[in-house]
Amino acid sequence: MDYVYNPFCQAGAPANLSVVEVSMGHSQSEKKSNHERIVRTAAKRLREKGLEAVAIADVMKEVGLTVGGFYKHFESRDDLVIEALRAATTPWARPAEAAASDRPALSLASLVDAYLSQKHRDRPDSGCLIGALVGDFGRSNKRIRGLATEQIRSALELIAGVLPGTTKESARKKAALTLSALVGALALSRAVSDESFSDEILQSVRELLKSVGTTDESSSVGAKSL
Asked: 175: which residues sit within 8 A by CB, 6+ positions away?
């Protein structure tokens, strides 16, 4: 049975509010709560099972609502997918916020360690959106690929910003290399069935990527001139 608001059972309710006003306030609050639950559930399914896993019937069943109620919140499945993609937090946003606060500044080493960790590998439902969906993005419509483009650009900018002692052009190239290696290594570590092999992939790429920001650019320039 659905919950029905009864203002006469609420101790301390403001006397100047009508039953209609209080009921409307509750309805809006409940609608907002349901909307957020739908988006959270869709975001979790996206990262865990891919874009095709966001079926309206399955999402609504998981949150305990009817399929008909879906259209009170979204005009189409694509609208839900886009909102879920935007709402899905990733490891890229969290360190960026930490770096802007009183917490320790983000470094390349800490980013690489967190991204290529066993915990991140084993929890795709709460991990990086790019790492979980990069294959799906390439097969998606233009609207979803546009959002993926925003996410990837943001990730590149973040990585470039933590590479020490590099020019802007060099930092962007190294950031592209780093992001590609991070996402690729994560995907491979999840793909193989041998856990020790998976751990080896993570460890090997982790160690190599930490040296990206410390490469001596002057020797690289000298090598080109030979």
From this structure: 156, 157, 159, 160, 163
Confidence of residue 162 (pLDDT cuts 50, 70, 90): confident
For 93-216, CATH number out of 1.20.120.450, 1.10.357.10, 1.10.8.60, 3.10.450.50 equals 1.10.357.10
Residues 6+ apart with CB under 8 A from 105: 98, 99
Task: Quote the CA–CA distance of 49 and 158 in Å, as a whole number.
Answer: 27
Helix (H, G, I), strand (E, B) or coil at 163: coil
Question: What residue spans in the chain does CATH classification 1.10.357.10 cover?
Answer: 19-87, 93-216
Give the residue with greater pLDDT, 51 vs 7.
51
Q: Give the predicted TM-score (pTM) of the model.
A: 0.72
